[in-house]
Amino acid sequence: MGRGAATVLAACSATAWQTSPAFAHASERGHVLLLPTGHYIAGAALAVAASFLVLAILPPERLVSFWRTRFPLGSIPDLRLPVSLLSFAAFAALILAGFIGSRDPLSNPLPLTIWTLLWVGLTLAQGLVGNLWAWLNPWYGPYRLVRRALGSKADGDSPLHLPAWVGYWPAFILFLAFAWFELIDPAPDDPARLAIAAGTYWLFSFVAMLAFGFERWSRQGEFLSAFSAMIGRFGIVDGKRDGARLRLAVCWPGAKLNDVEPLPPSGALFLLSTLASVSFDGFAKTFVWLGLNGINPLELPGRSALIAINSVGLVAVFVALAAFGLFAVVAGQRLVRSTVPLSNAAGLLVWSIVPIALAYHFSHYLTALLVNGQYAFVALSDPFALGWNLFGTAHMPVEAGIAMGSESAWLVWNLQAAAIVAGHVLAVFVTHLLAWRLHPSPASASLSQLPLTVLMIGYTVFGLWLLSTATAG
């Protein structure tokens, strides 16, 4: 036994230098859940159904009055320009780190910042607080400086006009490209590869803003700004511009949807695509998906071998989600014999997807945020791998097993399950109030959202199954 172990160790040492880097995707789950999840799933489905029944018997007028309540916080100066310039400087430093820093994705701050702090952490913070990206936007400051240098301060002085029919199609197409790069590209965590992609996207968006105007392109073309504006409506901090200052108030989650307009078809598809991408990311690692494609989960090939399969799967999940959602809206309209145009009804009710998307974002990426967030703090202290310790965290020990073990698994699962249930319950509440805008009769409003509620119950079960089923990778 001793000689055999020594032989194995010697062989591993001799071949270790030949191994290539393993680019770990941000959403890998570090444990197989062995809890009695059937009870959780049944309870979650009943909780969503019960929330629909409770809302159906409550007077909508009182719910809307309660929903509109605001609690003033005071005002703050508008510091978007200096904050944006600092954000741009940080972004430029991260791009440089991607080229000259560590080759290890867990030691280089660029992939950790984009995939963990930005796409996971900032998204969740915006769903809780509000549209923080409007302040951190790395295009706003440079855009203002260039416009001033050209002698034009008005955003409407742009040389080109973006036609109204374009809608959210640019943001939708760019987000699909982003989702493909994150979920399907062979090495989205490779620092140099990511630096090229992020730098190219910044430059492309900046040119588009100069051509079409910052506000217009941010609203319809730059997918991070469009997505942040949508999910920011569910944050509990509401801001109203008052000259050079911003008046802040605390509101209930989703209250900023009170005066929202129906999204055009392109906007509805864009919003649905954000949920579809997270859902497919979880589903693509399940034994079910791999088995359907004839892949042994215990002999999982690299991402390069799954490009075609997963590309088709990503599109299929999006099409299925859009089809089920449209069918639910059509069925609800038919139940009450509504004369409201289908585009208006679907464009308004699709806003109820946002709390579900946020819940899936939290649940799907929670373990990545807990672990990779620590790596990010370490890497940011020494961005160029020069031995710096800018923030005093360069030598901070990383607790990679924070989500491992029975107690941690129990806590993580309960947080994930609670988030999914809460997201769907809030979605039912939002759907109820939006349906009341379409159908002033409380009975008609409740009946019209019944098919959507059934869809949400099904998606609750699907989401909890995704978290509890066996996965590979």
Can you offer a commentary on this structure?
This protein is mainly alpha-helical. It is 64% helix and 4% strand. It is built from 19 helices and 3 strands. A 3-stranded antiparallel beta sheet has the order 1-3-2, with no helix packed on it. The protein is globular and about 65 Å long.
Salient structural properties:
single chain, three-stranded antiparallel beta sheet, 19 helices, mainly alpha, 473 residues
Q: What proportion of the residues is helical, as a percent range? A: 55-70%
Biggest β-sheet strands, sense, barrel: 3 strands, antiparallel
Overall strand count: 3
Indicate the low-confidence ranges by residue numbers: 1-34
Compute the average pLDDT: 86
Order of strands in the sheet with most strands = 1-3-2
Q: Hey, roughly how much beta strand do the residues contain?
A: under 5%
The number of helical segments is 19
SS-derived structural category: mainly alpha
String of helices and strands: HHHEHHHHHHHHEEHHHHHHHH
- The rounded distance between the terminal residues' Cα atoms is 31 Å
Radius of gyration: 24 Å
* Approximate shape: globular
Oligomer: single chain
Write the layout of secondary structure elements.
Blueprint: H1 2-15, H2 37-57, H3 60-67, E1 70-77, H4 80-100, H5 109-128, H6 133-136, H7 140-149, H8 169-183, H9 191-212, H10 214-220, H11 223-231, E2 237-242, E3 245-251, H12 265-283, H13 287-292, H14 307-335, H15 342-349, H16 353-381, H17 406-438, H18 442-448, H19 450-468
